[in-house]
């Protein structure tokens, strides 16, 4: 990218052009290959030079889809995702995707049009203060009124998005700045003197951390999404191999350590494995790398890991000590932190003896394995569908999910052996994320199979992007886990509200009128549609879907609405109250 920037700057600096042309030329110089967007009045001047640009523009059907597609592109590739929309409702429709990328630390640059500078504050047509609205939900937001500032603002946005803790940056550019002429000047340096994120960890703290790990009797490595964002999966594997310390991961760190690695205890928290939750509750040391200690992981914070000392390493100093007191704070990039820890523990003359600890954990894994009950209503077990999808999908398949029961089942029953292969909305829990994120991932990884594991509720929020995929030759595959319900909400109504199912029936299957009929809907969108109602049809449908590569395909798996996600910790409860299945509390000495 550096060479592209240098050559572009040398070739184009000093030319007279419009602000809109500056936008496009800057994006080209930054190496942008794909933009997801939807034009409108205040961004239309930029769409004119974009017409002749080598940058691929993918026209979405809704601005939220543009944001999630750019997020999926970034999460799958490690590059900065880019989206572009117009002012007012175009920009406000993007807010959910920006908030989602912000909390999950995804590098994203959003360019929005704004009314002319003279009209700002007059409640002009399609005016909205998108900078003010997004400032709490982005890493930074720029308002550009002067065409001379366009190139510097966009270049700065890319730098901010991709460095330190990654995140979304919004650049709002007035229409008057886009149409005005200026002299194009590509910045030779990023003009951000006050922005200097710390990436190199403190050597003394690394030594202290290694010493604490060596002394611990029951340590746990807590792997967070920061490891995936930093590209540090290999270093994590080296650390656990060298030390023998078990690993518990968060939802955003799926694949950071292979699910097949013997040291991987699985996900912690509300729907984590019994072994993972128990390990955190009973450990004497947590080595947290790139994790936030959010409430879905900790449960009732006051009772979380009561006997544990904490080493907390994160690129964002604001996260350290925010929720859990820390004994050794380490500010730094996860890859650098893990590399330095590996170098330190590699000097040990003997590996610590965790035999007793592993005996306890292995006993929990054996007594409480992943599993599920077969439905009694004659419909499919959703867990079985995902198990078979995991078994039949080609190596390197990327999975994107929506949010809800299917998201948790996907985390539990897909065996992921590498990072950037499980894309999901973690912190914000955004229904509708999966479909456009899968689209963005397929654009980023055209040679890899991309499956979206979605729910019938989530799909109907952004499913129109199937049209985008069909018209742009993006052959994703959708495994629709159709329980005809807002499943996770229904599960809570079953467990907490006495089976009073208030407004959770979606009427999409199970002997109803099937509104909509997802197979017909897929075909209307120019995609292939299949329906599966029996277990013996599952493998054939998955194989058929994977053989279709000239258009997107949706498989409507009709699953039982009574299937539930277990294990489970009730919201706000202590992790000590985890249930393996309804009414079945694991037996382990919580005070050991």
Question: Which class of the largest domain in CATH terms?
Answer: Alpha Beta
Provide the structure class.
Answer: alpha/beta
Stretches where pLDDT is under 50 for at least 5 consecutive residues are 1-6
What is the CATH architecture assignment of the largest domain?
3-Layer(aba) Sandwich
Distance from first to last alpha carbon: 53 Å
Say how many strands there are: 20
CATH topology of the largest domain: Rossmann fold
User: β content, as a range?
Assistant: 15-25%
- Helicity, as a percent range: 25-40%
Largest sheet: 6 strands, parallel
Give the number of helices: 24
Mean pLDDT: 96
What would you give as the CATH superfamily of the largest domain? Thiamin diphosphate (ThDP)-binding fold, Pyr/PP domains
Q: Number of folding domains?
A: 3
Strand order of the largest sheet: 3-2-4-5-7-6
Quick structural summary:
This protein has 592 residues and is an alpha/beta fold. It contains 24 helices and 20 strands.
Tell me about this structure:
- Mean pLDDT is 96; it is low at 1-6.
- The chain folds into three domains: 2-183, Rossmann fold, CATH 3.40.50.970; 203-367, TPP-binding domain (Rossmann fold), CATH 3.40.50; 382-558, Thiamin diphosphate (ThDP)-binding fold, Pyr/PP domains (Rossmann fold, 3-Layer(aba) Sandwich), CATH 3.40.50.970.
- The chain is globular, with a radius of gyration of 25 Å.
- The chain contains 24 helices and 20 strands.
- The protein is of the alpha/beta class.
- The protein has a six-stranded parallel sheet, sandwiched between helices. It has a six-stranded parallel sheet with strand order 11-10-9-12-13-14, sandwiched between helices. It has a six-stranded parallel sheet with strand order 16-15-17-18-20-19, sandwiched between helices.
- Helices cover 37% and strands 16% of the residues.
- The longest helix has 15 residues, at 63-77.
